[in-house]
Amino acid sequence: MPEYFHRFQCLAGACPDSCCQGWEVQVDADSAARYRALPGALGDCLRAALRDADGETLMTLAEGRCPMWRRDGLCRIQAELGEGVLCRTCREFPRLTHDYGDFMEQGLELSCPEAARLILTTAPAPLLVEDRPEPGEALYDREAMALLKASREQALALLSEERRPMGQRLALLLLFGCQTQTALDGGEPAPFSPEDALETAKALAKPCSSQALPDFFLGLELLTPEWARRLRSPDPGPWDGRTAALARYFVQRYWLQAVSDYDLYSRVKFTVLACLLIREVGGDFLRTAQLFSKEIENDVDNVDALLDAAYTHPAFTDDKLLGMLLETS
Ligand code: SF4
Description:
Shape: globular
Distance between the termini: 31 Å
Strand order of the largest sheet: 1-3-2
Strand content: 5-15%
Number of helices: 15
Radius of gyration: 21 Å
Structural class: mainly alpha
Helix content: 40-55%
Largest sheet: 3 strands, antiparallel
Number of strands: 5
Bound molecules: iron/sulfur cluster
């Protein structure tokens, strides 16, 4: 887990956004049964709000927000019955867990403003490692995982090379991801020379307007009017100094997940596209990054559409992405 993991504390009533608005929270079966059996006004309210659909139970929104959300920004369930009665989603958010069987990785989601502040303002530090009680069996190909773990360290180091402009660091990440994908596919692992890779990147780069980015994201599912408005009126600026922390967050979160389908490269392109889009949209960096996460990372259809587009969209080819990155170095 990242060093800041245990420092997270929900802002509750002081949260500038709130995870209780815009999302229909998925309620686990035990909590749903408990809520439906509650007596009194709270039970009546919960019975009216819970909705079963496709084998899941969801909390229906009222005027775009969770009906349990009080005017003071606090949760009615937590206030009346205590934190232990919250459903699993609300208890865990924004904590993330990815279980690989014999070990698991934990992190925080960028879609929460307080988590975003920790993710984007904490200096790079080694991951914290704690013993896992009762580890299970490894659920992955050990050789692939060893390659991914070692290459993730290299990717994080490339992103932290402050002497290089941000666009160059992301261009190097793209080429390093491509080379690691070849090794993952069974090719001969080769040493990675950033200087040689940069020459290759300059030779491959083709000019491309980054206006294609907001246009593409406008075609995805849109959750908030603010995101749609910002995509329609982008305000691009130079690279924000926190972009390296943003890219490290994506690399830390997604790199090892390639062990499930051997597709590292679309995840690397996801990272690069996200950083380019957030730069293109502009505005308050922390808010733009948090909104991106809320709109894209928390919507499985949007994630899939972006991973597909990483391979198929005519403006997201390697040469054009390198053009956008090196032009904006
Ligand atoms: S978005 Fe984060 S800080 Fe805000 S209420 Fe939810 S968990 Fe708390």
